[in-house]
Amino acid sequence: MNAPLLEVQDLVKRFPVRHGLTRRLAGYVTAVDGVSLRVEPGETLGVVGESGCGKSTVARLITRLIEPTSGTIRVAGRELHKLDEAAIRTVRRDLQMIFQDPFSSLNPRKTVRQILTAPFRYQGLAPDEPVEHLLERVGLRPEHAARYPHEFSGGQAQRIGIARALALRPKLVVCDEPVSALDVSVQAQILNLLKDLQDEYRLAYVFIAHDLGAVRQISTRIVVMYLGTVVEAADRDALFAHAAHPYTHALLSAVPLPDPDAERARERIVLRGDLPSPLNPPTGCPFRTRCPKAAEICTAERPALRLIAPGQEVACHFPEPLTVEGTP
Amino acid sequence: MTLLSVRGLSVEFRSGVRAVDGLDLELDAGAVLGVVGESGSGKSVTSLAVMGLLPDARVTGEIRFAGQDLTGLGQRALRRIRGNRIAMIFQDPLSCLNPYYPVGFQIAEAYRAHRRAGRREAHHVAVRMLDEVGIPEPDRRARAYPHEFSGGMRQRVMIAMALCLEPDLLIADEPTTALDVTVQAQILDLLQGLRERSGTAIMLITHDMGVIAGLADDVVVMYRGRAVERGAVREVFYRPRDAYTKGLLACVPRVDGALPLRLPTLQAPVEEQASLETPEVTP
Fold first, then answer.
1. Which of A 175-204 lie inside 8 A of B, CB atoms?
2. Does residue B263 sit at the A interface (CB-CB below 8 Å)?
3. CB within 8 Å: A50 and B180
4. Which of B52, B90, B269, B282 is the most exposed place for a label (fewest CB within 10 A)?
5. Which domain range does residue A319 map to?
6. From CA A279, how far away is CA A281, in angstroms rounded?
7. Is A172 exposed, middle or buried (0-12, 13-18, 19+ CB in 10 A)?
8. Closest residue on chain B to A276 (Cα)
9. Residue B111 to residue B71: CA distance in whole angstroms
10. Do B263 and A217 touch (CB under 8 A)?
11. In a mutagenesis test of the B interface, which of A56, A219, A259, A275 is the best target, namely the one with the most B β-carbons within 10 Å?
12. What is the three-class DSSP state of A268?
């Protein structure tokens, strides 16, 4: 029996919060609070949510840049946090990451050639193909190998980041906001490139972004996060056709449409107030303080993620009915 | 009535780079003009030129604000207009706030720079403005420092500061780019409300076609320092004539409508050309 490529179960990450000169422990921020995910080979799991929802922490946990407080992460059946240094190094061949800021994630003192051969050096492997080929695969020219990161535009630098992630031929690439620092026309190119590379190498992506349009374009399945929890998880088309969680609805209705008539005519759900402090999250449902449907039960009881339609799970006491027009 | 009229504006930096090249703009009182373009298109430099904030660049052409040519004005006269009649919010709120002072104090200071008001009155204005831009517990938060705010909250503080003097013109340079979508929706609502209540005209600079679609009356599409297309917002969105405008509209991944297998891409995006080629030097 084949284990899924990535399986995350009940992942929790708490960060200590310290105050004052003595670094007195003031409490904990629960950045990720019981997240479960699953990614199969060749598919893209989109993770959306606003700042502070824990999506980047999830990315850092999956790549074991930080250690979880509890919960398990399995990559191809192997539990990531039980592996020693040597074993994790082999797993990292299959598990790479692309970062948001293409410049701060590239060493300014190294040439592109040095950057792209570094993964092999760390792995103690001989590069199996020339750097020039790697560059061509991401749409750059062979002569770019001798240049330094500052000589490139943002879109080109991101292509270098992608080439580095692909160098070891991974199975899973965690992309943390890979296009949000780029111009729209460059975003489109990078999204197309990621899709082409996925088809070519049967890559799986965990694609973390706040841009719902970009997530829709690239994902097969999408989870929506809010205050460290997954509030809705659904197949791409189901989510955009009939989102069931009020937060997903608000999120979708908040995205401005590049269409003046549609944009001005539509009913926008404007959420009141702000994200509650993660230091002191609401009891019960984390979204209840901003939810237009909140009732007593939402304070008393945290809704669990439950299946409401094939391929669609929602954590809400009052999910939107599926039959009603749910299109944003 | 025309509030802002820009004619033949060119901005050339010492390096020889011509960031804006013969740009015309017109903005009526109380209207919203969207200026859209990608990095390097010259949209931000245009706004800085209007504010007279490019002392080292060669700015030519005419910038008329409420009948007065701003290009000929000295710094003293400009200071009376800046912040007061033309306010601006920038892309990066953190670099615009002084880390050493509470945000309420900074808003009050901006207010007192142009109005005869005591500290107490100015502080009340600051608290009211913080409340208006959606900062919870504005009384308490007015005494907090910029580092205690999230990125989104800092941008709200900047907006509060810009709006506290009820300017005739608000130049908003990517005002919601750093914000989450639900917060962006609030801020766009706020800008819309402000415009309706106070008649403040807005020059809205953004790369986001959706933001323009919701808020602007007219739109100018910029590419490499020039306006490649201009017109009423419906005209430009539904009947774009320029190839670049068409590409810009098509390449945005959308949350509605049909899902393309691949996104259409522009032939020559500004950014991709920018750094590896020799910069275009205008003699």
1. 182-189, 191-192, 195
2. yes
3. yes
4. B282
5. 238-328
6. 6
7. buried
8. B136
9. 25
10. yes
11. A259
12. coil
Across the interface, whether the CB atoms of A270 and B248 are under 8 A apart is answered: no
Cβ contacts of A109 within 8 Å, gap of 6 or more: A148
| Amino acid at site B224 | R
What pTM, to 2 d.p., does this model score? 0.86
Using CA atoms, how far apart are residues A173 and A5, in angstroms rounded to an integer?
A: 11
- By Cβ distance, the residue of B39, B136, B181 closest to A274 is B136
Q: To 10 degrees, the CA torsion angle through A138, A141, A146, A147?
A: -80
* Bridge partner list, A184: none
Using the Cα atoms of residue A255, residue A256, residue A258 and residue A264 in order, give the sign of their dihedral: positive
| Closest to A137 in 3D by CA, of A146, A129, A148 | A129
- Angle (CA) A208-A210-A213 rounded to 5° is 100
Query: Between chain A and chain B, how many beta carbons pairs sit less than 8 Å apart?
Result: 158
Helix (H, G, I), strand (E, B) or coil at A251: helix
Furthest-apart CA pair in chain B: how many Å?
61
Does residue B275 register a pLDDT over 60? no
Task: Report domain extents, chain B.
Answer: 1-85+174-283, 90-166
Domain presence at residue A250:
yes
ipTM (interface predicted TM):
0.83
Structure tokens at B259: 């899902």
Angle between helix axes B119-132 and B151-163 (nearest 10 degrees) is 130
Split at pLDDT 50, 70, 90, the class of B276 is very low
Residue ranges in chain A whose pLDDT is less than 70? 1, 273, 322-328
| Angle, CA B126 vertex, CA B122 and CA B130 arms, to 5° | 170
SS3 category, A45? strand
